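Re: your question from the hallway

Yes, I did run it. Sequences:
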Amino acid sequence: MKKVAISACLLGEKCRYDATDNHNDVLLEKLKDAELIPFCPEDHAFGSPRPTMDLIKTETGVRAISNETGQDLSGPVEAYAKDFFDTHTDIDLFIGKDRSPSCGVCSARVYSEAKVLLSENEAGLMAKEAKKRGIGSIDAEAYIARGGFTHHVKL
Ligand code: SF4
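Structure:
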C-alpha cells in the first residue's frame, strides 16, 4: 500500500487558522487505497485557531512572518517538518494543501517586506523539506486534476 503524507485539514481536521477544515471528498475517494499519514505543522506549533502568517522574502531568505506580531514563525514549522520526515522515512507521495505557506507545493505565495506579491507558485516550508528529501510532492488540486496516483509527477 502506498504511503501518502497529507495535510490534515484535507482529511477534515479542524486545524486551519480559523479552526475549520478543508475536507475534500473527491480527493479522499482517489486516495482510498493509500495509507494516509496526516500532518499539520501550524496546529502542532501554534494551535487552532491562530493568527495567519505569510511567506516574506527577507534578507535572510523566505521566512514565515506572523500577520499579527511580525514575528518570524518559521523555526517551529521547519523543526516539525524535519522531525516528521525523520520519523516517516518511507513516504511515497506528499500531498499539500494549495496556497498554504506551510503545505503548498507549487502554489504558496511569497511577498516582499512591503507586502507586494512576488510569486504565487512557491513551496511552503514543509513542502520545501519534502522536496529537499526527494519525495514526490504535489498540491491537492493538481493531484485531483491529474486523476490520482498513477499520474502523479515526481518533482
Ligand atoms: S494547510 Fe497545512 S498548516 Fe494549514 S491547516 Fe492544513 S495541514 Fe495545517
